[in-house]
Amino acid sequence: MVDTLFTWQGVNNALLRDRLISNRQERLAAEKAQKAAEEEATKLIDTLDEEERRIRKKALDDARAEADALLDGFDEEMKKLQNQVEELTRVNEVLQFENQGLKAKIDSSNAVPVLFMGDEFEFYQGEIKDILLAVLTEALKATAQKSRRADIIRDIIRNNDYQKLSMTKAEELKKLLKNYDGMSGRTRQALKDLGFEITEEGKHYKITYYGDGRYQTTYSKTPSDGRTGKNSAQQTINMVF
To answer: What secondary structure does DSSP assign to 26-61, as a single string?
Structure first.
């Protein structure tokens, strides 16, 4: 029921289609310009003597070869974009069928959900449920164990397949930044794999979680002491996990 432009896949698909249309227009413009240039050059060659004609013809042939290579580049890019559009379309169709199956399963179930989704979108599959279960797990530690509240919390955790996704990501980040002494290629790639975007701002790197401006922090380019990495990791964990 959600419009495709409100989904990550839908936005990617729309952007790729725009790029594909733009590339086609650029290719047509390039072909038109090439044809006009060749016609003009042909007229010019006819007015020259034999030696000048030979030089001009070679220059024209070189220019034509360069133009053909440029057009081939357009073709290759358009083919790549078309393949990406087709793949995203296929993925969208698979997800639509999956959603239909899940909806049918929910509709046929007698179970009543305890909570309903709000307006936040998930950054990765299962994120929201996992964070809620993590919060309940922490709350359970501070709850009187022989109490109705504790029994309900344990029951919810037990019946919702708590996979500890956010906890696993937090541990990965701790290990990654334990001995942080600068943004190496390995560290940069590992942060990207965890969903962080990295940009440079003066003496710091700006770290943004899944491109959402609400979740930003900075890492020093030149850490001053051995605890910098641990502090940065904990600050980031508190913010996003």
So the answer is: HHHHHHHHHHHHHHHHHHHHHTS-HHHHHHHHHHHH
